[in-house]
């Protein structure tokens, strides 16, 4: 089956910096792909390019068979940004019902989306009065309520306690089993092990695109955090070597 997302030679500049330096990768359908990398490595920028809100210098991004950002993709792609993007002066339920209506969904779907992120008890609360972790889950409910085919989630589990994190990952896998494609960024390496596939980026370059088991096998360590450190060191050594060759 054709991949949900295909990225070819993507170069993005932000300000005066080259933030993505020619990334090529694919996101398979019906799976949870983790996007991992150090702070500032370009994860959010890559996600922005996928949802079509990032100006790109060169390269192509194809999403569900269409160019990223094509108007017909709007209803088919859900995006959770790091900053809350819902209405502070509406309740959780009102927000979810509003976003549901934009996707032609009813109250039942909205209430289910709120329950799915563990906010049923806070459904009547104004978003402006929620804790940071609750607000992030309310945004997640709104990103998922239209049942999009591709879901792009920028650090959806930040600020959540371990029990909620486990519940959210179980929900992501349920959605993948039902055919949804998920791309989830994370800083937390133990979350890498929960993904079906991993994309690891560093300084705007892709240094791994594989399953967690293949990353472990390639690096010879079980712990994914240690495996990533090894990949990062190997890519640094490769760049130093390339620099010497060039000079
Ligand atoms: N509007 C902007 N103008 C200039 N540079 C920017 C802008 N936004 C981001 N950058 C730079 O682009 C680089 C990549 O940022 P990005 O937000 O994609 O990283 P990230 O991997 O998502 O980081 P984090 O994990 O901390 O969210 C960083 O060096 C950042 O400083």
State the shape: globular
Q: How are the strands of the largest sheet arranged?
A: 6-7-8-3-9-10
Helix count, DSSP H or I runs of 4 or more residues: 8
Q: Oligomeric status of the shown chains?
A: single chain
pLDDT < 50 stretches: none
CATH-derived topology of the domain at 31-53 and 72-76 and 148-246: Rossmann fold
The radius of gyration over CA amounts to 19 Å
The CATH architecture of the domain at 31-53 and 72-76 and 148-246 would be 3-Layer(aba) Sandwich
- Which ligands occur here? adenosine-5'-triphosphate
| Proportion of strand residues | 15-25%
Summarize the helix and strand pattern as letters.
Answer: EEEHEEEHHHEHEHEEHH
Name the CATH homologous superfamily of the domain at 31-53 and 72-76 and 148-246.
Answer: P-loop containing nucleotide triphosphate hydrolases
Helix content estimate: 25-40%
- Record field, number of beta strands: 10
Tell me the distance between the termini.
44 Å
GO molecular function, one term: ATP hydrolysis activity
Domain ABC transporter: 5-228
Pfam families: ABC_tran (PF00005)
InterPro entries: AAA+_ATPase, ABC_transporter-like_ATP-bd, ABC_transporter-like_CS, P-loop_NTPase
């Amino acid at each position: 089956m054709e991949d949900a997302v295909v990225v070819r030679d993507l170069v993005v500049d932000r300000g005066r910096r080259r933030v993505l330096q020619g990334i090529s990768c694919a996101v398979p359908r019906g799976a949870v792909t983790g996007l991992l990398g150090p702070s500032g490595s370009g994860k959010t920028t890559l996600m922005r390019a996928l949802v079509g809100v990032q100006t790109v210098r060169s390269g192509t991004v194809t999403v569900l068979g269409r160019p990223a950002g094509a108007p017909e993709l709007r209803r088919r792609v859900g995006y959770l940004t790091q900053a809350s993007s819902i209405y502070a002066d509406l309740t959780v339920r009102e927000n979810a019902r509003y976003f549901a209506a934009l996707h032609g969904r009813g109250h039942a779907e909205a209430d289910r989306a709120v329950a799915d992120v563990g906010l049923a008890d806070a459904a009547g609360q104004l978003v402006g009065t929620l804790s940071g972790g609750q607000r992030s889950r309310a945004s997640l409910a709104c990103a998922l309520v239209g049942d999009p085919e591709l879901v792009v989630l920028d650090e959806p589990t930040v600020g959540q306690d371990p029990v909620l994190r486990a519940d959210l990952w179980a929900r992501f896998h349920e959605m993948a089993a039902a055919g949804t494609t998920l791309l989830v960024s994370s800083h937390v390496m133990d979350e890498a092990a929960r993904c079906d596939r991993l994309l690891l980026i560093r300084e705007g370059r892709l240094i791994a695109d594989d399953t967690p088991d293949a990353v472990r096998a390639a690096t010879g360590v079980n712990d994914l955090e240690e495996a990533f450190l090894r990949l990062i060191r190997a890519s640094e050594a490769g760049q130093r070597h390339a620099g010497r060759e060039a000079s």
